[in-house]
Amino acid sequence: MAIPIKNNASSFFFILMDLPGLEASHCWTAIPICSIYVLSLLGNITIMYVVKSVPSLHTPMYLFLSMLSMADLGLSASTLPSMAAVFLLGQRKVGATTCFMQLFFIHTFSVIESAVLLAMAFDRCVAIREPLRYATILTTKRIGAIGLAIVTRSVALHLPLPVLLGRLQFQPVNALCHSYCVHPDVLRLASSSTLVNSGFGLFIMLSTLGMDTVLILLSYVLILKTVLSIASNAEKLKAFNTCISHICAVLLFYTPLVSLSMIHRFRKKNLPAQVYMLLSYLHFLVPPLLNPIVYSVKTKHLRGCILKILHPKKL
Fold first, then answer.
1. Do strands 13-15 and 173-175 pair parallel, antiparallel, or not at all (unpaired)?
2. With DSSP H G I counted as helix, E B as strand and the rest as coil, what are the percentages for the chain, rounded to 5?
């Protein structure tokens, strides 16, 4: 039986998982993975550039959308180094320190995105319930304060993670379930007690993602209550249409995340590895790719501004 190594991060490392059954074809699987990253990068940078360049888009809804694009870019950048190493170079070995830092950034940007989605739900709630006071409630100064609070909360909560992981004991070689490092995946490989780490991780999840989910649902209950009280069907439809893009973004982000978290916490040994990989890719790759598309397609004003910038002579 292998003897666990003490908490010297230079004395053990992790093995990243390639796509099960396609390890020998990592160069081919790199094509769709890299294409997703490139499209995500272009889409989110386009959203941020258009919102910054067009004065009519300097409203709370689009400022929060820019924050969502920043969070998507951060999430993509957090997973890109190890994904590129696995799929482009076939390198699956990663040092403990690098792994711990990567999981810090992945979880930090995940919680930032969750908080931005909550802020966007609050924005829609205020716009529908208090349309006359909308501009006075969500001023630029308050939006900036919300953005600062979002980043501060996420960074402060996740700073202890690498430190706590560094105190654990691991085997010299540790095989992960994904092609990047996430906290539950690393934690299951520890050879020493993980009670403190598990408790702290659960606290972070409940106080951020869990609380954000509840508050988003509460916001939509209030929105639904207000919309149903509107007499005109046309006005009801108009109010619902302003929320469709945000609802899609929430579903894209939370559905695979909740599924992945539950699988990790109530793991079954006979569950195929493909399930883990699929859910993890859905969570980390799909939202940054689809969010710009959803908002561009469903938001007429934003779509018009993008087309005007891309084809100024035709418009």
1. parallel
2. 75, 5, 20
